[in-house]
Design goal:
CATH superfamily of the largest domain in chain A: Nucleotide-binding domain of ferredoxin-NADP reductase (FNR) module
CATH architecture of the largest domain in chain B: 3-Layer(aba) Sandwich
CATH class of the largest domain in chain B: Alpha Beta
Number of strands of chain B: 13
Oligomer: heterodimer
Distance between the termini of chain A: 15 Å
Shape of chain A: globular
Order of helices and strands of chain A: EEEEEHEEHEHEHEHEEEHEEHEEE
Number of helices of chain B: 4
Number of domains of chain A: 3
Structural class of chain B: alpha/beta
Helix content of chain B: 10-25%
CATH architecture of the largest domain in chain A: 3-Layer(aba) Sandwich
Structural class of chain A: alpha/beta
Bound molecules: flavin-adenine dinucleotide, FE2/S2 (inorganic) cluster
Strand content of chain A: 25-35%
Largest interface: A-B, 22 and 19 residues
Helix content of chain A: 10-25%
Radius of gyration of chain A: 20 Å
Radius of gyration of chain B: 18 Å
CATH topology of the largest domain in chain B: Rossmann fold
Largest sheet of chain B: 6 strands, mixed
Number of domains of chain B: 2
Number of strands of chain A: 18
């Protein structure tokens, strides 16, 4: 890792907060305070699961002021091969694991006059920390939170109690209630910023609507909890170190490199930060770009790949590593 | 004499009407009127029914641009006597504006810089403003020594109208002030400054 100095932490508390959602509190093993973070930041959680080392990004959702510990909330993903299943079913209070320093790829714009947040499902987590910070700083905000059922939705009751139902609006699929995006976005004062965190379809839908309503892109912000999609197995050849490494169907290139002792830089492991950008020397198939970082012409050039989430369709790719 | 190649030098990419905007607010100065007139020629006049135009003629009074603008048939047109009066009205309008309003600024750099500052105080990201430089290249410059601002500087070096120092005009631009930086050029040996060159006609 380039910038991250990792922190050893102990699981101080685990709590079930909704259907399939657990909340974890981590405190440092050396008893030192946690670094202060800003709302929207995430950490990479490194988990030793038997032989496998799993590293997943999770948004911090405790108060940014709380330096005694960090908290995350994790959805148990149905198709999980590892990470969220491990956190839900194996990890116990008292266990130790490693956290990266916090990184914020989803900060709120301090110049904004008002902040509107839209969350879908587990996408609520970064907003919990953001609202804590905004409330302390006296900023105008409102949250629109879409949940599948009231029992699936984590924290909506707490949030309504704390900030008031006028600032925290909950929409439940089961009750056929959806975020009235157009109505919310019409007639917002100049200088309002919009933040969306949820599934890709929701993000695209909301941001598309905002653009149609004439919102400039500078006022639109989003974060997708992107996990590297599986695909076919292939080989990665490292041009500089002259090695060949197999990437399994359920592995990302980054994970395959790490499993073979090759450390490559990363910050988000979700295709957003740009840190893992790697040069492509050659590829016998097509690059499958799954990231949100590279510009369309960079993607089309076939010369760059974000190894945390992207794959190839062929059988081998040679990287400038 | 000019120190060039500094990144903070502002870029003006043209008024380019955003067809998605629900309202269009134009703050125009002098030759900036022509930037809007050119847009109407290129993009048609449709957007004007949702447009508000604020205009100050400044040095272009003789050109009668205000009559051409008034004839465009925008929703509202308002002619201001001076830049400060225009900016005050602009400020009031921004206070009542909603998201979906696109803001367009055209005229001299000094005017754009000041209008941009007003917009930023309303939480508007300067990158979301549509700007076009028209008319004189004269600069609004702040003396880094006495902090006095001199408008319409066309030469470098120039003599600070506040403290009298001979100042080199840098490309360094402060968004907060809407002004370039002027730095004393003959501090070592007063009176040895090079002859002013007409760099910003
Ligand atoms: C910036 C950011 C913030 C995030 N914040 C949160 C948060 O606050 N809460 C939260 O719950 N989630 C969050 N996530 C998502 C989280 O990192 C994991 O992606 C999510 O927990 C799913 O992990 P998993 O159970 O699939 O983990 P794993 O199974 O360990 O997945 C790890 C990797 O395994 C592979 N993999 C997993 N499943 C499959 C499969 N079925 N087939 C093939 N390969 C597979 C993929 O390479 C995957 O990344 C965030 C993601 C990002 C990018
Ligand atoms: S690690 Fe952030 S884009 Fe790959």
């Amino acid at each position: 890792m380039t910038i991250n100095t990792e922190m050893k932490v102990r699981v101080a508390k685990i709590r079930q907060v909704a259907d399939k959602v657990k909340r974890f509190r981590f405190e440092r093993v050396d008893g030192k305070p946690m670094p202060v973070f800003s709302g929207g930041a995430h950490v990479i959680v490194s988990m030793r699961d038997g032989k496998a080392l799993r590293r997943n990004p999770y948004s911090l959702m405790s108060s940014p002021e709380d330096t005694a510990g960090y908290e995350i909330s994790v959805l148990r993903v149905e198709t999980s091969r590892g990470g969220s299943a491990f956190l839900h079913e194996t990890l116990k209070e008292g266990d130790e694991l490693t956290l990266s320093q916090p990184v914020n790829l989803f900060p709120f714009d301090h110049r904004g006059k008002k902040h509107i947040m839209m969350a879908g499902g587990i996408g609520i987590t970064p907003f919990i920390a953001m609202m804590d910070q905004m409330e302390r700083e006296g900023r105008a905000f409102e949250l629109h939170y879409a949940v599948r059922t009231r029992s699936h939705g984590a924290y909506w009751k707490d949030l309504q109690q704390r900030y008031g139902a006028h600032r925290v609006k909950v929409y439940c699929d089961e009750e056929k209630l959806f975020i009235p995006v157009q109505k919310v976005l019409e007639n917002q004062p100049l200088g309002t910023h919009l933040y969306v965190c949820g599934p890709a379809g929701m993000i695209n839908g909301v941001l598309g609507k905002a653009r149609e309503l004439g919102w400039p892109k500078q006022n639109l912000h989003s974060e997708e909890f992107l996990a590297p999609p599986p695909g076919k197995a292939f080989q990665v050849k490292l041009a500089k170190s002259n090695r060949t490494i197999d990437v399994a169907p359920h592995q990302s290139i980054l994970e395959a490199l790490e499993a073979n002792g090759v450390e490559a830089p990363y910050l988000c492991r979700g295709g957003a930060c740009g840190q893992c950008e790697t040069g492509v020397v050659s590829c016998d198939g097509e690059l499958e770009h799954n990231d949100h970082f590279l510009e369309p012409d960079d993607k089309a050039s076939g010369k760059k790949i974000m190894i945390c989430v992207s794959r190839i369709t062929g059988s081998a790719v040679t990287l400038d590593l | 004499m000019l120190v060039a190649g500094i990144k903070s030098r502002p870029v003006y990419s043209g008024l380019n009407i955003d067809i998605h905007a629900k309202r269009h607010l134009f703050a125009l100065e002098g030759e900036g009127a022509l930037a809007l007139i050119d847009q109407v020629k290129a993009a048609g006049a449709d957007f004007l029914k949702n447009a508000d135009i604020l205009y100050v003629a400044s040095g272009s009074r003789a050109e009668d641009h205000d009559r051409k603008l008034a004839a465009l048939g925008a929703d509202t047109f308002w002619l201001a006597p001076t830049i400060p009066v225009l900016l005050n009205r602009f400020h009031v309008m921004l206070g009542q504006a909603h998201m979906g309003t696109r803001i367009y600024l055209a005229g001299t750099e000094g005017f754009i810089g000041q209008a941009q500052q007003v917009a930023m105080n309303h939480g508007v990201d300067p990158a979301s403003l549509h700007t076009e430089h028209r008319g004189s290249a004269a600069r609004r410059v702040q003396c880094v020594h006495c902090k006095g601002i001199t408008d319409s500087v066309t030469t470098s070096p120039y003599t600070c109208t506040h403290c009298g120092l001979s100042l080199l005009v840098r490309d360094h631009y402060s968004r907060r002030l809407g002004a370039f930086q002027g730095v004393c050029i003959d501090a070592e040996e007063p009176g040895t400054a090079p002859k002013p060159e007409e760099l910003f006609p």
